[in-house]
Design brief:
7-stranded mixed beta sheet, 11 strands, 17% helix, globular
């Protein structure tokens, strides 16, 4: 999220050129942040420029694109297979509306055999808890619905195949994570990564390497600009996840 800063035409053109480098090389998907709506006002839900650049008209021709909610691509899902495992990625708007969560519920339920990752701009806070009442930059402060706590209660914890939630948006040190138990006894890892406070970002990337033989996800953080790794425990860690299990 926050593909742009002020949602200007020039910024979207820049983002478009930058992301096209990946075309035909690696599958990718885009998630809207609060800065990506017209006038940076997410409550208005005006995603015109986002959809001009990254709308369903572009993704629909790609084999890993699943579909979207409503008329725009700000809420969409994607599927892929890697390491002998089938995955589903569900991308949600900033402060998702209840009708969007209902749609997401249906998509995940229809894909019970796929290991599911949820990506949304605002979910985790920098104190290793979900964004909730009283937290700064809560979606409710932007007149949007459903913060991290509400997303967990209304959607995430209900599905056995959801194992990972990724988000950004929050400042401070821009990192945070927690592991919670869903309604079916499944472990859900929830991770925050936001590097805008680090010298303009320096292109820091979160890299997640899945090791099925070890039932482990190795998480590292790297800047291709500085060619350095962030090696502190907030940016270099392991997540335990059962990958040898057969889903039916």
């Amino acid at each position: 999220g926050d593909i742009t800063n002020a949602c200007t035409r020039q910024e979207w053109d820049n983002a478009n050129r930058a992301m096209r480098v990946l075309d035909g090389v690696v599958p990718y998907f885009m998630v809207m942040g609060n800065h990506d709506y017209a006038a940076c006002k997410p409550a208005g839900r005006d995603s015109t420029l986002f959809n001009e650049c990254f709308g369903s008209h572009w993704f629909s021709k790609l084999s890993w694109y699943g579909g979207h909610f409503g008329e725009g691509n700000e809420n969409a899902f994607y599927t892929f297979r890697a390491g002998g495992m089938d995955f589903l990625v569900v991308c949600l708007e900033f402060g998702p509306r209840d009708e969007v969560l209902q749609w997401a519920d249906e998509i995940v339920a229809k894909n019970k055999t796929r290991r599911t990752i949820v990506v949304t701009h605002c979910y985790m806070y920098s104190d290793d808890t979900r964004v909730g009442a009283g937290d700064s930059a809560n979606p409710h402060a932007y007149k949007c619905t459903n913060d991290g706590d509400e997303l967990w209660e209304k959607f995430v914890k209900k599905h056995e195949n959801i194992f990972l939630v990724l988000s950004g948006h929050i400042l401070n040190d821009g990192t945070g994570r927690m592991t919670s138990t869903g309604d079916h006894g499944n472990k859900v890892h929830q991770v925050l990564a936001n590097y805008q406070m680090r010298d303009g970002g320096d292109g820091w990337l979160r890299i997640m390497k899945f090791l099925p033989s070890e039932d482990r996800i190795v998480v590292s953080t790297y800047s291709p600009l500085t060619k350095q790794h962030a090696t502190d425990e907030e940016n270099d860690f392991r997540l335990e996840y059962e990958m040898e299990r057969t889903w039916r």
